[in-house]
Write a structure and sequence with these properties.
- The protein has a single domain, classed as Thiol Ester Dehydrase, Chain A (Roll).
- It has 3 helices and 7 strands, in the order βαβαβββββα.
- The longest helix has 22 residues.
- The chain is elongated, with a radius of gyration of 17 Å.
Amino acid sequence: MNMTPVKASASEAILTHIIRSEDLNMHGSLFGGKMLSLMDNCAAITAMRHSKRGCVTVSISDVSFLAPVRMGNIVTLRSRLHFTARSSMELLCTAVREDHVSGDLKEVCRAYFTFVAIDSDNQSVPVPPVELETAEDRALNAEAKARYDARRQAKAR
């Protein structure tokens, strides 16, 4: 496996989804679980592009539902990798609601996803490092490294 760093932009994923009636809860807004499913799909694409492997979701953290999404709204999901360890990758996925009539845009959800790359026997495999390209990439990387180190310390206890 090539362990040359991969630019964060090379694996970035953007998905767009129109909200339909079957996506709604009894309050007329998007099911939280549906939003997480959409985000997990987007995030998985980023992880697979980066690692060139199959990947599994290990965790979803710091999920913030910021505003409701209604039927007919367009939701654009964006995921970008900002941290790698031996076989794991952390990325941020955001969702932005678009009112197609007014053109108004609003961030409605964000969460951090951790994936592990796996081989055909479902065993973890190394992933290439990420090449950070922007100030935001570097800031998110520092935060992710702190979370990673805290998890490792907690496991060691």
